[in-house]
Amino acid sequence: MTRDEQLAWERQAARPASAAAFASAVAGLASLVVANAGTGGRSSDAVDALAIAHKHATGIVAAGVLSAISILLVIPVLLFLFRATQYRRPQIPSATRHLVTIGPPLFAIGLIAQSIALKRAVDRAYEKLPLAPKAAKNLAEDAFTTGAVGSWSLLLLGVGILVGGGVILISLNARRAGLLSAFMGITGAIVGGLVVLPFFGRPPIIYFFWIAVLGLILVDRLPGQRSRGPAWESGEAEPWPTAAEIRAEQLAARGEDPPSRRGRVRDPEPEPEDDYEDEYEEDDVSAPAPHPRSKKRKRKRRR
């Protein structure tokens, strides 16, 4: 594929990929809201959380479906970025494409299956209430973490390696190709790591920011910057300009000096050397030696 053909394809495919990125962020946020409402935020007492989850049992499954939709919408975004990166940086492993096409669908299935298993476990546990306080607490905690729910959690960890690996490889290589800034490339690697190890839930909060900004980059709508990296226009691997370089370019366009040159004191001009020694004859031994601390030299008058 020629350079013009590649750039034409990118311009055509950028808008659908950007729309998928924004839709993924919206679906992920919606799943987070619904999940917190359905489980009481998991911050209250375990028995209270079990009662809230039973009351909003349908919301648990809805949250799982929304999370699955969010992860499926990542596929066109990552495939677009993979193809754009591969054209500029052929060193990216070709197997990365398979991680993107296989990982997210399996992950989406696991999210829905886990939500269904959680709903059933909550309903079964709630039917056994009331119990003694300690027994009720243990029953509620087991409903959220053991049995089929725990099994699906372990499977999601394994499948998350595929999804997270694809996100990490594409983010880092896109950064090296100049399609992502250093900040976005590193953030993408962090998102991929949190998919594998969900310390902050699925999807992680940082994911919503990253995928939304990525959607803006694809259609060149970054706020506060004149344009994205030059690699998008040249079709070649070029470093993304740093914030200092962008600022200096903007100042130069307005005819202003960069901050490093503002208020800079000019170095004083060197004083002209005196022709002190030239005033004496070579054989004149009475010529006084100049004082080493004196900055100005007096001239000897000729008689």
What can you see in these coordinates?
This protein has 303 residues and is mainly alpha-helical. 65% of the residues lie in helices and 0% in strands. It has helices spanning 3-39, 46-55, 57-72, 74-88, 96-127, 133-145, 147-177, 182-196, 205-218, 231-234, 243-253. Helix 1 runs antiparallel to helix 3 (57-72), helix 2 crosses helix 5 (96-127) and helix 5 (96-127) packs antiparallel against helix 6 (133-145). The radius of gyration is 33 Å and the shape is elongated. The chain starts with a helix and ends in a 50-residue tail after the last helix. Mean pLDDT is 84; it is low at 275-285 and 294-298.
Quick structural gist:
By secondary structure, the protein is an all-alpha fold.
| Total number of beta strands | 0
The average pLDDT score comes to 84
Element order: H for helix, E for strand = HHHHHHHHHHH
Q: Strand share of the residues?
A: under 5%
Estimated radius of gyration? 33 Å
Low confidence ranges: 275-285, 294-298
Distance between the termini: 91 Å
Oligomer: single chain
DSSP helical segment count: 11
Q: Which shape, going by the Cα principal axes?
A: elongated
Largest sheet: none
- What is the helical fraction, as a range of percent? 55-70%
SSE layout:
Layout: H1 3-39, H2 46-55, H3 57-72, H4 74-88, H5 96-127, H6 133-145, H7 147-177, H8 182-196, H9 205-218, H10 231-234, H11 243-253
Helix pairs in contact: 1-3, 1-4, 1-9, 2-3, 2-5, 2-6, 3-5, 4-5, 4-7, 5-6, 5-7, 7-8, 8-9
Task: State the main characteristics.
303 residues, mainly alpha, 11 helices
